[in-house]
Amino acid sequence: NGFICNKKRVQRLLQNLGYRSCASKKRYGRAPRQNTLIPAYNILARQFKVDKPDRVWVSDITQVRCTDGWQYLCVVLDLFSRKVIGWSTSRINNAKLVLRSLNKAWKQRQPLGHELLFHSDQGIQYRALETIRWHRKRKIKVSMSRKGNCWDNACSESFFAQYKKEWMNNLDQFSRQEMTMQSRIYIDTYYNPVRSHGTLGGVSPMDFELIN
Length: 212
Description:
alpha/beta; Nucleotidyltransferase, domain 5; five-stranded mixed β-sheet; 5 strands
C-alpha cells in the first residue's frame, strides 16, 4: 500500500496480532523408475532471470489431497514475470494434463516457438512422446532439470510452495471440484494480479508485465 518499512517490523506486528507462519513439511524419497524417453539437457542451468517475455517457460506438477482422492495441478510460468500463463487440473497425472496447460499458455501468449525455451523436470509426463511432439511441431527448444535436483526448477517449486502455504493449507476439507475452483481463485484473482514478488521489485506479475 505504499508504506515504507522494514520486513522485521511487519513480522513483529503480525506476530503481535497472533499470526504465525505455516511452513509445509518436507518430503523425502524417490519416485519409482519408469521406462520413458531419454531426458533433455539442462539448458536453462538455473539462469532464472530473463529480460523478455515468452523466452523461457517453466512447468511442474503438484498433487493435492482431496476428500475424494488426489487431484493434480500443472502450471506453466513465464520466467520473465513469474506469471502463470497456463494451468490445468486432473485426477490423472499424465501427459494430457501437461498438454492442456501448454495449449492454454500457447493460446494466451502466441509466442514464436523457435525463440522459446521450455524447462521442466524429468517427469514421465514431460518425456512422453506426445509432449515431445507438441514441442517439435512448434520448434520449441526443451530443457530438463538434472535427475533428483529440484533446484534446477526452483521457480516452479517456489510457486507450489506458496500456493499450498498461502492458500490450500488454510482451507478445510475440499473435493476435487472445489480444489480446481480454489486454484482458479488463487491464480487468477490473487497470484497473477495482486501477489508481490521480491524478484520483480515488489510488484505482481501482471503489473511487472505492464511496466516492462
